[in-house]
Amino acid sequence: MAGTMSNAELIYEFFHGPRPPLPLGESASWIVMVWAAIGFVMGSLPIAVVLARVFAHRDPRSVGDHNPGSANAWHVAGPVVGMLAVLLEGTKGFAPVALACWCQGVTGWAVVPVMIAPVLGHMFSPFLAGRGGRGIAVTFGVWMGLTIWRVPVVFGILLCLLVLVVHLQDAWTVAAAWFLVLIYLTWSYPSPPVLAAGVINYGLLIMRHHADLHRPVFRRPRPTR
Description:
Layout: H1 7-16, H2 29-44, H3 47-56, H4 70-77, H5 79-103, H6 111-123, H7 136-147, H8 150-164, H9 170-188, H10 192-209
């Protein structure tokens, strides 16, 4: 049938387009500053901490790695609250980037501070004395705001494969997955600003996970009984 795409073509289109309009033009500096500020404030909101305290009367920083993120909120308050924390922490990265890039016409190199601001706000939240989370959920949101489902889907698939098949430790999983995302970006979004934002995001993720990168790369197999 004419016009019918093959499976390979469908897969190609799914992961390759459509792409946001990112010519190397200039956006008004005040618009960039406003959206970067909005992104930083939204990113800094300690949503997981608030949800865990409201619904479970516990602080997620009291368990595990003492991280004020959605994983520990899930641990102390259960899967419903944990999933809500994941969605809301993703939203605080998604909303400012999507509105700035798709609605306000922020383009070119101006997308870099707009994309990085929510991640910085989350990792160095002034509401938590600069001791924020590790930035995985907000990273999903930021890149969903720019690329819709493509980068989040690729990142999520890679995380699952590296954990379930390769059995990497958590920090090494994040480091390896985002490195592969950067390779994907060079093919799917070959825009210097997008690649720059990806590299900076990678550096921030490595910085927040560096303590755990001293651990063994692979998970130890569970002892059999």
